[in-house]
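During the second year of the project, the team shifted from modelling isolated chains to modelling whole assemblies. The rationale, set out in the original proposal, was that interfaces cannot be judged from single-chain predictions alone. As a representative example for this report, we include one of the complexes processed in the last quarter. Its constituent sequences, exactly as entered into the pipeline, are reproduced here:
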Amino acid sequence: MTLKIGVIGTGAIGRDHTRRITRTLTGATVTALSDVNAESARAVQGALAPEAEIFTTGEALIASENVDAVLVTSWGATHAQYVLAAIAAGKPVFCEKPLATTAEAAFGIVEAEAAFGRRLVQVGFMRRYDASYKMLKKIVESEIGQPLMVHAAHRNPSVPEQYTTPMAIHDTLIHEIDVLRWLLDDDYVSAQVVFPRKTRHAHSGVADPQIVLLETKKGVRIDVEIFVNCQYGYDIQCQVVGEEGLANLPEPMSVSMRKEAKRQSTILTDWRERFVESYDVELQDFIEAASRGTASGPTAWDGYVAAISSDACVQAQKAPGMIVPISLPARPALYQ
Amino acid sequence: MTLKIGVIGTGAIGRDHTRRITRTLTGATVTALSDVNAESARAVQGALAPEAEIFTTGEALIASENVDAVLVTSWGATHAQYVLAAIAAGKPVFCEKPLATTAEAAFGIVEAEAAFGRRLVQVGFMRRYDASYKMLKKIVESEIGQPLMVHAAHRNPSVPEQYTTPMAIHDTLIHEIDVLRWLLDDDYVSAQVVFPRKTRHAHSGVADPQIVLLETKKGVRIDVEIFVNCQYGYDIQCQVVGEEGLANLPEPMSVSMRKEAKRQSTILTDWRERFVESYDVELQDFIEAASRGTASGPTAWDGYVAAISSDACVQAQKAPGMIVPISLPARPALYQ
Amino acid sequence: MTLKIGVIGTGAIGRDHTRRITRTLTGATVTALSDVNAESARAVQGALAPEAEIFTTGEALIASENVDAVLVTSWGATHAQYVLAAIAAGKPVFCEKPLATTAEAAFGIVEAEAAFGRRLVQVGFMRRYDASYKMLKKIVESEIGQPLMVHAAHRNPSVPEQYTTPMAIHDTLIHEIDVLRWLLDDDYVSAQVVFPRKTRHAHSGVADPQIVLLETKKGVRIDVEIFVNCQYGYDIQCQVVGEEGLANLPEPMSVSMRKEAKRQSTILTDWRERFVESYDVELQDFIEAASRGTASGPTAWDGYVAAISSDACVQAQKAPGMIVPISLPARPALYQ
Amino acid sequence: MTLKIGVIGTGAIGRDHTRRITRTLTGATVTALSDVNAESARAVQGALAPEAEIFTTGEALIASENVDAVLVTSWGATHAQYVLAAIAAGKPVFCEKPLATTAEAAFGIVEAEAAFGRRLVQVGFMRRYDASYKMLKKIVESEIGQPLMVHAAHRNPSVPEQYTTPMAIHDTLIHEIDVLRWLLDDDYVSAQVVFPRKTRHAHSGVADPQIVLLETKKGVRIDVEIFVNCQYGYDIQCQVVGEEGLANLPEPMSVSMRKEAKRQSTILTDWRERFVESYDVELQDFIEAASRGTASGPTAWDGYVAAISSDACVQAQKAPGMIVPISLPARPALYQ
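Output from the structure prediction step:
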């Protein structure tokens, strides 16, 4: 039995997921497409899913009998409404991050899903599906004792003019915010941001680099260097220091060479290459859970906590050095 | 359009490939099964391919209208007859190594396919599909100048009692024999074997370790250490030394730790883990080519050359220190 | 011409330096010894410097015509008085850290030396003489652009019962305080301390680990993890992130092995091994400068700045999360 | 008591050793100099040893009452005569390699020293004093079980026009010949040479690279890649494979960087930097043994065995692929 998926939003990521479902993954097909730009939907239909029906609105797509499960890959501001509509229809829904543009809206989704009583929502935090993070989590849980500290870095070669200081949280740190909670099985209680000397490679609108200090409920201290104009490459680092030893996120596989008086190996420069395989695993997981009428992986609650935590970090950016508390409501039973 | 595959031989590897086709890969389904042990075929049918038809003989399976392409995963001695039958039927066929148990029989397949005039045969040398070897090949072809030497090692933690000295060639070195030809785009002209002091961990029936020295047409000198009771892990090493620099086969990704006064990371101990992903890629490649009525990847000619080269190495084992020439007939146009 | 050195304080470090001068280094000899415990001085005389004269007081030793230069390796609380006496006598003096037990006393030495008008004092910050730090400094000054951040760690396997929270600054961080100023050619402007969850391996009297955040005049942000019960080894880490790239302090040389399913190499567990060679280089440098009637390497000013900066860090320990300013008087011309 | 050393041969290496003795090492002074070029001897006297007496002949220098021990750093063809003269005078002598230009002449020295009955000769194989080889030997003797194979490489960036094929043995491999015997505590029984495709960077007079295969008495198989125009750096590799695991010669310490899309660290390009510290340790060892009237480190016997083994390798170069036996006379009791 093949899962019939409807895709809302056929921009770059929507198109890419459609390709995944129709070409690489198993157990699903794309039967419906929708985009505010009908042209874009038709282009994806023509290239990848000739038998898909095109819907004028996401709501109509969700309502279709020919749709078992929904992918929300539209503009961020529209995510919440489609996710809520899918919950209302009782259909599993995969939503790219952010789950919603405000923590309040994200919490509305949490409440709706909790009221429905069964998981339907998976949020697109793909790092949890990355082979290197999965290896690290396994080691952290078995080899190094209780975690005490995390030293992390998120570095991009450069960012465009429109990238602003808060985007370092919402678009960049957001991945660490989710994956470190998952890695440590913990939650944040405070955030602080410090701004080092600014690199000459950053444009005027962005403070770069930044260091975000997070504290967790269990007392783990996390420092994340965000450096989005580091020049040298796309580089994700994560070191967990535990009571008995420490563990590092594996480096992407590469050929070590000796050449021109250097031992050398290549660092990726494009973030898409770094996590490309995790997108496949993530979406396959969605297909499998949705085929059973439910959802797996990152929850609406995770999406909500990411929103609350990001908001605190942005607030901390505005008052450098200040320690901003992060507090969460009680976790609904569905997410225990 | 889904490719209908018939699987001849439902032992461990046949079962595994059936699982791949039905669960992980796209574009194909298993419609037919056959095994000398009918029980085994029925077990695979029950577990993985309930709609597959069971055939009493491989030949009947190949002849079935419900079979577009054939997987030969039966006992090695039967490979050649099924591959020949598939060629006769004009159906693409994936054959696990060895293509045949003698070089002569392998050459018969080469002649049959050349006479047919289109590629139908893919031989199961999966290392060519391994991500680390593909990375290495890319570097070798672009970064280090003309290759001059290869230093390689093939190490297993241990082997069972029935593993004998010639198996170090036929079952172990065979992978290097194929993948190094491909890596260097070259052929062998001679082989020599030297036997170091035997490890105390080897049983009486096997000389272990061994070093095989190969010379290629272009003059590249290859040394391969075969050490099948090395105790410490399953470890595949390959260093290519070129005129401008050298390149190493990437290590499998692993978490580096600091613990108990050691910087450490895990070495695999099970060969199945090392190349597990390459089996998927290999078979997906077969499905795609077979869907177009042809074959891709390692050819019948590659299977034949591997047989000829292995035979020379076994002969070299019998006369330690002697340099045994390897010569090949002209390469048919189909394989240029 | 051989430099005649008098050693005040013949405990472990005094004895060790005496051995260095008499056995390993060139250009100097030990002609005088003094210790509050006369027995100890006689023991060192007997074992290492039979021709040395024993003095009852450090002051008498300094005054001796048979002493060209002085080593102060006595109990920390007595350092300042002997250094001041050596300056008064116009004799070069090497003083183990701390230069003085209060910043005020250290400043008194700065003033005395500045008044004398020529450098006479070298403070025992040996890391500046360590080959790995020297390599790092060279790279930082030429290869990675302007430094923006430093991520450092100072880890010990364990500490004894008498090690208390402030000692993490005075005895442990003190080395980073000095060496990072030197590495960056910069000064500190503030300090903050955060306390992660405490390791189960720390005794009740010490908060362990700690993270010290330092800010420099040029805006560099430094985080130093101090973890003195890390169990796994004695491990000094330092990563400098610059505008064009990053550089890591070299690891001590070690044999990489493959054994028991691990790629592994040894981590030192004894701090004495880590910097053993730098003590030789440091003291040889003292001998050479003292032979010319002056001093080289870390200055009295460096000792004073280390004291001021340490005091701020200890204050920051008492108010976790608070950012404690560090301010310095004008640097005397002698130290420009 | 200071050892009075006479230096015969004041070229580059003689001058360098004179500097070591007078500036860096302890326990010795240079009291006598001699060179066929009196100008050269005077230059070294002026720069480094103003109180040394200049002798017209090496023999006169050896006979001087003001000389306790002798350094032979003259032209290779003259080594044997000076070493024999020193033995005749009962004075410890350090002789740079080669001990003699023929195996016969080297054996003459062995016989003379054995007749004298006490060790007086140290041969200048400095690798045994290198920290990385000492670390490796310790691991090989304790951690990896019985050695079975050694994979080694000796690579230079390039060599001048006058470097010929046999020099790859006499000037390059000679270091591996000595150090691997020492590392394994073993002797060679045969040698074979194979010539890979020649690099385009080698001039017409030298076959480059070469691979030398050595077999030891205990059955260890050694392959040494000699590649003297490898372009990329001066690189010495040594991997010992034992019954329980394998161990690699440590890399020289270096700063690892991330820059320009590469993880990178520097490879040395000048052989002098690679072993610079081992020369100090080697000569200090000579001073200490000579002060007791004897010699330590590599023996005349080691020098003789190196000569015999090199001759076999050169013979093997002339008959590529042929296995040339290496046999030694009984080892005199003095060298057991």
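The domain at 131-269 of chain A is CATH 3.30.360.10 (Dihydrodipicolinate Reductase; domain 2). Chain A touches chain D at residues 157, 231-233, 235, 251, 254, 258-269 (CB under 8 Å).
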